[in-house]
């Protein structure tokens, strides 16, 4: 059961996995970010009162909204890519192209959303 | 080469264990969440979101169809937004999302915690977290 790893952390950080590695890391950050946010959000709306209001103020901040929307959108789009490639294994041949399509969907949608969030934050 | 060979194995010899089932579960719940969120957004548009809400509020409703998520909009009547249908949809989304998320946390923890004892503790904590978040979430959904 106990697993032995032969790679040190420094070597791991120097690993150049390129596109697929980047999506893996961002998928993990996005998943963790959403898990923490949703847990805190459920607890805040359960507790209510001063604590709930304080936590509400944090995630109504536009910087936090940009971060959490990045987490949710990237995790959703990357998750859909993983699901499609895993459930139809023949498509694995095109995995590199799938990542390009993923960015082509993600960048415009996220860019437009950030524009809207910043505009309303500046009082537009 | 090894990967190609294992794909031809019959199901019984492929090592069908809990982790493999959870691997499939993660993919299927991802699709289920897409379906539920899409249903919530389509429902919002049918119930008049097109003229009484902005895009951000529709998305907020989509990620969790709970009537408190739309109470600060221009809606005149919140009654159609807090029907049992939407509470059941929200409960399903909660169950699926919590299971998907907590399993994801276990997968991440397993990458860094490698002792058998540590992994057992992670599993016990994850089950406690899953049950408590589901209970608290259901309480909020059905009392709001």
Folded structure, characterized:
- The complex is a heterodimer of chains A (124) and B (144).
- In chain A, 81% of the residues lie in helices and 0% in strands.
- Chain A is mostly helical and 124 residues long.
- Chain A contains five helices and no strands.
- The termini of chain A are far apart.
- With 144 residues, chain B is mainly alpha-helical.
- Chain B has one domain.
- In chain B, 74% of the residues lie in helices and 0% in strands.
- Chain B has five helices and no strands.
- In chain B, α2 (18-52) runs antiparallel to α3 (55-63), α2 packs across α4 (84-112) and α4 packs antiparallel against α5.
- The longest helix of chain B has 35 residues, at 18-52.
- Chain B is elongated, with a radius of gyration of 20 Å.
- In chain B, 21% of the residues are buried.
- At the A-B interface, α2 and α4 of A face α2, α3, α4 and α5 of B.
How would the blueprint of this fold be written?
The complex is a heterodimer of chains A (124) and B (144).
Chain A (H helix, E strand, L loop, with lengths): L8 H6 L3 H30 L1 H11 L2 H26 L7 H27 L3
Chain B lengths: L1 H6 L10 H35 L2 H9 L20 H29 L3 H28 L1
Give the helix level of chain A as a range of percent. Answer: over 70%
Supply the CATH class of chain A.
Mainly Alpha
Strand element count of chain B: 0
**String of helices and strands of chain A:** HHHHH
Output the structural class of chain A: mainly alpha
The end-to-end span of chain A amounts to 57 Å
List the uncertain runs of chain B. Answer: none
**What do the pLDDT scores of chain B average to?**
86
**How would you classify the quaternary structure?**
heterodimer
Distance between the termini of chain B: 55 Å
Largest sheet of chain B: none
Uncertain stretches of 5 or more adjacent residues of chain A: none
Please work out how many helical segments of chain A DSSP would assign. 5
Major beta sheet of chain A, specifics? none
């Amino acid at each position: 059961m106990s697993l032995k790893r032969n790679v040190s952390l420094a070597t791991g950080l120097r690993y150049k996995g390129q596109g697929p590695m980047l999506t893996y890391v961002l998928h993990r950050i996005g998943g963790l970010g959403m898990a923490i946010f949703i847990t805190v959000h459920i607890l805040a709306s359960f507790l209510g009162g001063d604590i709930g209001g304080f936590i509400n103020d944090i995630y109504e901040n536009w910087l936090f909204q940009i971060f959490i929307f990045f987490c949710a959108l990237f995790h959703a789009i990357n998750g859909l890519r993983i699901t499609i490639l895993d459930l139809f294994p023949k498509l694995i041949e095109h995995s590199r192209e799938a990542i390009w399509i993923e960015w082509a969907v993600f960048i415009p949608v996220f860019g437009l959303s950030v524009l809207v969030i910043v505009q309303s934050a500046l009082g537009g | 080469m090894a990967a190609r060979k294992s794909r031809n194995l019959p199901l019984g010899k492929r090592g069908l264990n809990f982790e493999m089932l959870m691997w499939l579960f993660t993919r299927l719940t991802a699709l289920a969440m897409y379906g539920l969120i899409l249903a919530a957004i389509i429902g919002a548009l049918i119930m008049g979101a097109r003229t009484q809400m902005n895009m951000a509020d529709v998305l907020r409703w989509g990620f969790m169809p709970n009537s408190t998520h739309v109470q600060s909009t221009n809606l005149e009547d919140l009654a159609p937004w807090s029907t049992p249908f939407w509470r059941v949809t929200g409960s399903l989304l909660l169950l699926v999302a919590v299971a998907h998320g907590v399993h994801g946390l276990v997968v991440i923890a397993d990458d860094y915690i490698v002792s058998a004892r540590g992994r057992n503790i992670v599993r016990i904590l994850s089950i406690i977290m899953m049950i408590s978040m589901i209970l608290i979430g259901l309480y909020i959904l059905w009392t709001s």
